[in-house]
Amino acid sequence: xxxxxxxxxxxxxxxxxxxxxxxxxxxxxxxxxxxxxxxxxxxxxxxxxxxxxxxxxxxxxxxxxxxxxxxxxxxxxxxxxxxxxxxxxxxxxxxxxxxxxxxxxxxxxxxxxxxxxxxxxxxxxxxxxxxxxxxxxxxxxxxxxxxxxxxxxxxxxxxxxxxxxxxxxxxxxxxxxxxxxxxxxxxxxxxxxxxxxxxxxxxxxxxxxxxxxxxxxxxxxxxxxxxxxxxxxxxxxxxxxxxxxxxxxxxxxxxxxxxxxxxxxxxxxxxxxxxxxxxxxxxxxxxxxxxxxxxxxxxxxxxxxxxxxxxxxxxxxxxxxxxxxxxxxxxxxxxxxxxxxxxxxxxxxxxxxxxxxxxxxxxxxxxxxxxxxxxxxxxxxxxxxxxxxxxxxxxxxxxxxxxxxxxxxxxxxxxxx
Length: 417
Fold this sequence. Notes:
This protein is an alpha+beta fold. The chain has four domains: about 1-85; about 90-185, Beta-Lactamase; about 195-260, Signal transduction histidine kinase, dimerisation/phosphotransfer (DHp) domain (Helix Hairpins); about 265-415, 2-Layer Sandwich (Heat Shock Protein 90), CATH 3.30.565. The chain has helices at about 1-40, 55-90, 110-115, 130, 135-145, 185-220, 230-260, 275-290, 310-325, 370-375, 385-395; strands at about 95-100, 105-110, 150-155, 165-170, 180-185, 270, 295, 305-310, 330-340, 340-350, 395-400, 410-415. Helix 6 runs antiparallel to helix 7. It is elongated. The mean pLDDT is about 80.
């Protein structure tokens, strides 16, 4: 009897110890599952639960692991979508900003910073007024929110670099006051449009002068000038000179139009540069000698080019013609040289020179330092612009060195091959 009781007590003790150990292990596994669930709740999709042994707790761990894998997959998909949106936003040609109800920037792209002249995009939470001071944009956003529709406006922003933009404000449908601001930069288009208007105005002005002379002298001849033996020959000579001037202007306009076409090409051939220089100097020699100027071609070795000969002749002719035209006394000297890759040519005159502040503009269309004198000499104001375009097509460049009272030197360089 006693032995039976002792055995029962020992068995009960062993069972209790085993139950306690099993309960402790189960509690530890449950706590581990709790930690995994807590980590998943914070967005950590890399945690994993134990799935063994294959009991209820193990199967619960397997379910948590499947949920973690699904969460990780969704997070990766969201990250890819976010990166794609960021990539699209970063590479948009328009400036874009998402604003809250208080016009604080929630997100913006680099292009917006470029348009507004800021070194970097504004940090989230930055008031728009600190990023760009433009009451017109504030008013546009206010009206868009009030009218609950997208609004556009063309604005001039006085940022570090003045910009002309089309601003679009669109209220978002969440009724929280958020709005999307888009700035489309029209500065380049406005510049091109202004250049086109200036070009038309300049052409009209340049055409008016010879046309007025042609009409005036023709009417004079018709009104009795034909009977004026003493003056009619002079009248006809003026008409001829003005017609030649008009022809030169039209020719230069056509050349410039051809050079500015996007599909403009070059007809390259092999030729000797010094031969072109000598030919163009010969064409101007009579006019230079009549003005008392010496034309000099400095000696040197042969310079073979693979380029558009007609265009290079045009460049040399314009540079020599300008030098002869604006040099009152002294000489015009032409020199040329080359290395293995580049050929160069300089046209130096002893004329009045060009002020330093004016030199960057001499290659603009219709720019003249002395407008009255240029018209008197018969210049069209397009020669140096043509030179610049021809050099650009050849992958070369043209420059000028000059000091007032010390003459000018125009130099072009272009690849030999």
